[in-house]
Design goal:
Blueprint (H helix, E strand, L loop, with lengths): L4 E4 L24 H10 L3 E7 L10 H16 L7 E5 L22 H9 L8 E4 L2 H9 L3 E5 L4 H8 L9 E3 L2 H10 L1
Parallel strand pairs: 1-2, 1-4, 2-3, 4-5, 5-6
Helix pairs in contact: 1-6
């Protein structure tokens, strides 16, 4: 049976935007995120994190550190009764000096490779699905994936709303203060 999914950007939406998270001590989950994800779980939404992580390709942090951060994030959220169903990330950067990551991939947002991987793993109802993020690439990713988007004002979001969104072709269906505000809006629909 198809289920709607909420695709969530990581940096600036789930956790504090601090540039490249190159140490576990720099990863801080934003206020309201555990409650937001728990509400999605309780309302039968798949919770799928989709995140560009080119810091691996740029040599700013290792794949092992990224996996530690994701384990920490999932464990911390689980302690609050919030479950992430899947995490998809893109480690690539075309101008990387690390050959294995220096590719023009199809997974770096706004390209749609991560949603294609999610569709292979889950039976997703795209018509009832949303992308929530703090960056214009999240909106374009949603548009190319034929799902609705919500912009949050956390992370880069406030600046994106003020300076990029007015001239941007891919408009969100809602601009939320944060992830919890976005989820509450979705649940009222």
């Amino acid at each position: 049976m198809k289920r709607p999914a909420i695709f969530i950007d990581r940096d600036g939406t789930i956790n504090e935007q601090m540039g490249y998270i190159n140490h576990l001590s720099r990863f801080h989950i934003l206020h309201g995120v555990p409650e937001a994800i728990r509400l999605l779980n309780e309302n039968n939404f798949l919770v799928i994190v989709v995140s560009n992580q080119s810091g691996i390709a740029r040599g700013y942090f290792s794949l092992e550190l990224l996996e530690q951060i994701h384990t920490y994030m999932k464990d911390t959220l689980q302690k609050s009764g919030a479950e992430i169903d899947a995490i998809f990330y893109c480690p690539h950067y075309p101008r990387s000096k690390i050959k294995e990551y220096a590719i023009e991939c199809d997974c770096r947002k706004p390209k749609t490779g991560m949603i294609k991987k999610a569709m292979e793993k889950f039976d997703i109802d795209l018509e009832k699905s949303y992308m929530i993020g703090d960056h214009f690439t999240d909106l374009e990713f949603a548009s190319k994936s034929n799902i609705k988007s919500i912009m949050v004002k956390t992370g880069y979001g406030l600046g994106e709303v003020d300076f990029i969104l007015p001239g941007f072709n891919h408009k969100p269906v809602f601009i939320a203060d944060d992830l919890l505000d976005a989820v509450k809006w979705i649940l009222k629909k």
